[in-house]
Amino acid sequence: MGQSIDTDQKQQLAAWNKRCGILWLKYFAIVLAPIFLLMFPFVQVLNYFLDVTRPLVTGEMVYGQSGYYEYQAAKDQALIILAVLPVLAAAHYYLCNRWCNKAIRALGLPPGDTTRWNRWVLGKAQDS
What we know:
This protein is mainly α. The protein has a domain at 29-111. 76% of the residues lie in helices and 3% in strands. The protein has helices spanning 2-58, 68-107; strands at 120-121, 124-125. Strands 1-2 form a two-stranded antiparallel ribbon. The two termini are 28 Å apart. The model has no long low-confidence stretch (mean pLDDT 81).
């Protein structure tokens, strides 16, 4: 009888590990991949911003020259985009991280009482 309980717990633990693995794959796909995809345009726009502001800072383009207002407008647009992209990434991370925490809580603790995970119950340490 004891062996059937161990076999049942092993099957339950294997199923829990599979659900946990799928959850972490979803976390990577839903949370981390879009943040990396948002960082690519951020780096591109940062490079563009530095290219546009270099003539303005070094004095190659001064007030009154032709093209000065175009450089200023391009600088302002790039600055707005540089401000928006990290905010989008932070909001996406915050919302998706909340989803992940709820999914982890719904997953519950692994079956069995000998694992290290049973020391923690939804963020509170059990008294041993």
